[in-house]
Amino acid sequence: MLPGQHRGLLRKFAAPKRCFMPTTPPALRPHDRVAIVSTARRVSGADVAAAIEILVGWGLEVVLGESITAAHHQFAGSDEVRARDFQRQLDDPGIRAILCARGGYGTTRIIDQLDFAGFARQPKWIAGFSDITTLNCHLLRRGHESIHGVMPLLFDQAGGEEALESLRRALFGEPVTYQAPAHPLNRSGTATGELIGGNLSLLQNLTGTASDCPAAGRILFLEDIDEYLYNIDRMLVHLDRTGKLRDLAGLLVGHFTDPHDNAVPFGQTAYEIIDTYARRYDFPVAYNFPVGHEPRNMALICGRSARMVVTADGTRLDYV
């Protein structure tokens, strides 16, 4: 039977048994200290002023790393400065969470300089998205949960209140459920597996590196911004050829913001491109999921076991 003939049927997929479950850092409590750093593009103190006020309102104490206000061309300081700053926050037992101030580009330049041995003995939450997909994957590869969620630069963006609240709930260990409306390309079914994913460009870039994560039996989520449609197709071709899509438990497709096209159109939207490859397999798929470079960027815990249910009425995601 062809994959398209399964559409609309309810299917169930479960992750294969693993020898370990990713470790969960302790939930934050009032008066905990959290650090804001930048592993990628430069940022100023003024850029994170609103975030500091919000975090203090959550009852937290905020520490700014040296990479905040540091500058080296477009980066938040040299590779050495950014790596040293992040390492300091990793190793400081008094810092209970590290929030990456913004994305851009630069995290892959320093990831192999970082030592996570101390972190492994005393895990803490690390949160961010976009370029921070590097850290999310690097940590999961080593058996640790982290948060794919809104970053301090965007804490006060208009329309982002729900995303910010989801980050707070994730950091403080409070339950959350996510829902998304039905989409014509959705494929119904129920899937259970650990969440993995993030920015498509970074996931493709990390393939074959020490930060690459197995996707088999897991629920993959994807998002991206400012990419040409042909390049989205090229990245999907690459992921498919490496086998990343073949044994997924499920696929959540988030925002693909501000895509570009050539003078001669590619002929498909970003979602239609993804559907071209997803339809080759028989796992549930949900489009228009609220994750990515738009205000409704809900916090997802990478490595956390979740259940996605896709029906004709829409999509629901719960942690299990």
UniProtKB/TrEMBL annotation:
CDD domains the UniProt entry points to: Peptidase_S66
Protein keywords: Carboxypeptidase, Hydrolase, Protease, Serine protease
Superkingdom field: Bacteria
InterPro entries linked: Carboxypeptidase_A_C_sf (IPR027461), Class_I_gatase-like (IPR029062), LdcA_N (IPR027478), Peptidase_S66_N (IPR040449), Peptidase_S66C (IPR040921), S66_fam (IPR003507)
LD-carboxypeptidase C-terminal domain mapped to chain residues: 192-308
UniProt protein name: LD-carboxypeptidase
The keyword Magnesium is annotated on this UniProt entry: no
Family that this chain belongs to: Belongs to the peptidase S66 family.
Residue stretches making up the LD-carboxypeptidase N-terminal domain: 34-149
Coiled-coil spans in chain: none
Pfam family, one: Peptidase_S66
Classification via PANTHER family: MURAMOYLTETRAPEPTIDE CARBOXYPEPTIDASE, MUREIN TETRAPEPTIDE CARBOXYPEPTIDASE
Keyword Hydrolase: yes
Originating species: Hymenobacter fastidiosus
